[in-house]
Amino acid sequence: MQSPIQPSQHSAAEGQTSSLKRAMTKRHLIMLSLGGAIGTGLFLGSGEVISQAGPLGAVIAYIIGGLIAYMVMLCLGELAVHLPVSGSFGAFASNYIGPGTGYMVSWMYWLGWSATLGTEFTAAALLMQEWFPSTSIWIWTLIFASGVLLSNLSSTRTFAESEFWLSMIKVATVLVFIVLGFGAIFGFIPFQGYESAPLFANLTEHGWLPNGIFPIFATMLIVNFAFNGTEMIGIAAGETENPEKNVPKAIHAAVWRLIIFFVGTIIVISSLLPYQDAGLNAGHGLSSSPFVSVFNLMGIPYAVDIIRFVIITALLSTANSGLYAASRMMWALAAQNQLPRVFAKVSKSGIPVLAVLVTMIGGLPGLLSEQFGADVIFKNLLGVAAFTMVIVWMSICWSQFNFRRQWLKQGHQVAELKFRTPWFPLVPILGFVCCTATGLSMAADPEMISGFIGCLLFMAGCYASYYWLYHHKN
């Protein structure tokens, strides 16, 4: 029996995928996923969630967010192992939902990453200017942009290694934060002049849910933004060694580690800081992370400098992986004849050079955001990235639901699949519903309503352009 994917698309995708180098290992996949997720959403967004939802509410929100991410990644695992092609979401949506939706999903994902490149570089440059006030933001912006561009243009293995070590800095910081935090909670480390911090006192001082239950749901967009990036495992499947073994292992390892990291971080912050003080202090910009506050109260020297450095690496890591993911999505569009074929050409080292360069140009408008404050940059970045992520995650759940049904209708057995999404159809249905609710919550935020409307208009434009091109060709 034939696979549900159309033969012509399968052969095209297969031929192009063979031109890309399968150079990533399981450790690269795990770090790519962790690196995409551990960033501003954790270092900055976690404090906002605590200040709004309260200690217990924040823990519940991150657990729910982690479970939503896990359900989506389980759906992605079945699809990516069955069809390990680069630019996977668009190909899956094209084959199992409809070509117009696949086209829209591909462009939404490209928009989400390319549009945030400039703001990532600018935010990192603003932080560097705090160290070197006399230097221009443009100098640092160009330095960072050049470094990320070189990382992506060299080879897949070089990119994977650079992202591995950038991500390692973030992961190590989170682990040290959690270990030292629990050391302070249980009295092994002095805290704020006390021999030990009051054991979990701040967790219960104002009640577990001081603002009620509703803020748990109101903050879900921020929480889901924190898990944004885990889906890069699907993007990288087409360039991964032995994907049927490494992709499922990477999915399980990455998502559960993220849940442990995020929940552990929330417990430490909620225990050591009054929940009202966990949010960002706008007057101190990006460096006013709850991580800084906790390290300062522990008496750790140079806490501001340490976290500033970590946030810079987080921003560059996000830009590095974002440029990779967006360029591979553009390559996939060209491989499916939805962009000029020149975008599908790859270098001798297997890099779609033109797709990388054009994606970098797509991020240039963000370089004009120098005049905005860090809080505005963060809010804009969160809104666009979170909404585009929600659309992609919804498409993954829907694609897996349709794929499994087609697979069984064709006479195949579930046991034939090398990776199976458990508890079908509950997992894809519940994942889709949760992602839909999260996306709609964006409309309830007055600061995000313009971004919400803009993203909807972009979606409509994608459908309109696809059907115009389809009918124009025919």
UniProtKB/TrEMBL annotation:
Residues 28-445 form the Amino acid permease/ SLC12A domain. The keyword Transmembrane helix applies. It is found in: Membrane. It is a multi-pass membrane protein. Its main location: membrane. Keywords: Membrane, Transmembrane, Transmembrane helix, Transport. The keyword rRNA-binding does not apply. The chain crosses the membrane at residues 29-50, 56-77, 89-111, 131-153, 165-188, 208-227, 254-273, 306-326, 346-368, 380-401, 422-443, 449-469. It holds the Pfam family AA_permease. It comes from the Bacteria. This is Amino acid permease. It comes from Acinetobacter terrestris.
